[in-house]
Amino acid sequence: xxxxxxxxxxxxxxxxxxxxxxxxxxxxxxxxxxxxxxxxxxxxxxxxxxxxxxxxxxxxxxxxxxxxxxxxxxxxxxxxxxxxxxxxxxxxxxxxxxxxxxxxxxxxxxxxxxxxxxxxxxxxxxxxxxxxxxxxxxxxxxxxxxxxxxxxxxxxxxxxxxxxxxxxxxxxxxxxxxxxxxxxxxxxxxxxxxxxxxxxxxxxxxxxxxxxxxxxxxxxxxxxxxxxxxxxxxxxxxxxxxxxxxxxxxxxxxxxxxxxxxxxxxxxxxxxxxxxxxxxxxxxxxxxxxxxxxxxxxxxxxxxxxxxxxxxxxxxxxxxxxxxxxxxxxxxxxxxxxxxxxxxxxxxxxxxxxxxxxxxxxxxxxxxxxxxxxxxxxxxxxxxxxxxxxxxxxxxxxxxxxxxxxxxxxxxxxxxxxxxxxxxxxxxxxxxxxxxxxxxxxxxxxxxxxxxxxxxxxxxxxxxxxxxxxxxxxxxxxxxxxxxxxxxxxxxxxxxxx
Length: 498
Prior knowledge:
Layout: E1 5-6, H1 17-33, E2 36-38, H2 41-49, E3 53-55, E4 60-62, H3 65-74, E5 78-81, E6 90-93, E7 96-101, E8 106-108, E9 115-116, H4 120-132, H5 156-167, E10 172-174, H6 180-191, E11 195-200, E12 206-207, H7 209-220, E13 225-233, H8 241-262, E14 270-278, E15 283-284, H9 289-305, E16 309-311, H10 324-339, E17 344-348, E18 350-351, E19 356-357, H11 359-376, H12 383-386, H13 388-394, H14 405-414, H15 426-431, H16 437-451, H17 459-478, H18 484-494
Parallel strand pairs: 2-12, 7-17, 8-19, 10-11, 11-13, 13-14, 14-16, 16-17
Antiparallel strand pairs: 1-7, 2-4, 3-4, 5-6, 8-9, 14-15, 18-19
């Protein structure tokens, strides 16, 4: 099992106990007074059978406070994710932080900084890099490179997770994508791995039919779920941070109630994001101080409820390049999220407001993740670490610590050493070609692709994936979502060698 990073000190907080209670009570009031719209007949009946006021014509569900709080208490504080390699299993919850793949729709050309659809080979290579990274714990193969060259859009995300499982032994997850989830669930069950279902509801206060149906599918398959609430403050939710969190929390509670009514005790993590509207441009502001503040607020609430969290503060920059802005927006958002108690954090590789992804950026981000993880682990204080006897032995100048066993034993353990940062002295930097971190990350990517070999699939596992993919391809072709012309290009693309 991957240990991730364990936070060993009190989490960062911004709300007083009174503020926390006010948001909690406000969310309960919204659920009881206004309720949520649920466009799924089976779910409406389930809510009605458990004491909710349900308007079946308007599809509105008003949830009593007692039921919301009862369902919050039923959520387990931890759940396990089984990976293809048991060494990569995860235990999500508590004070442990795991980093997961970032999101980015298209491949980024590092020479022109323009984007294009990614090839089959490029997705596979990105997953091999992810498999090799020390601080990327949960692969998210389906969520990046969703715009694929010659792959029909209706099946691109399923091809992504198949590519991910083939090219990495780390844990995976999936979401809700036009019915693809039923094939992803079937694949995971037959392989004996866990995928949790990322379930994105619509803001404000709406659960569309396909999301609710997917909730039933994941729960009935025995998989954990990740209700996901993302809003743009000032557009889909209030412009005030406290008001936006009230609305977000109400929707989170409704998601929890629905999941626990479907399957009591089901594992849950909550993915949350509140980004403000840039009123000058009419676009969401993905990386900013206010998003970090609402992230900390959401983490406080989820710790109160004992429910694992998944944060996306810092998962993307507004920058379209891998540059200084990209670095500080991603690093600061992620650091604040980690300090405030995230259990899962979307991070490595994506930027440009979810528009772009590159494994070179995932390599750079992995150094940031390691830096943050080392900080979370804090400082151990005991007799050996205090080194009082050693200090007294060495004394004043000309004494030193370079030749001491204590130094040899502890220096690597106490430090964090980045893999691709420019750490050379200036003269050596000049002599070695003036390479910056981006150039060093490119070199490391080439080295990984040349030397890293992910755990191979067994013939039986490969056959499971191929059988499910064949079934899915035929299903969408028969439905008319893949034309004959697309089919020819699609089959040719799948022949691409790694």
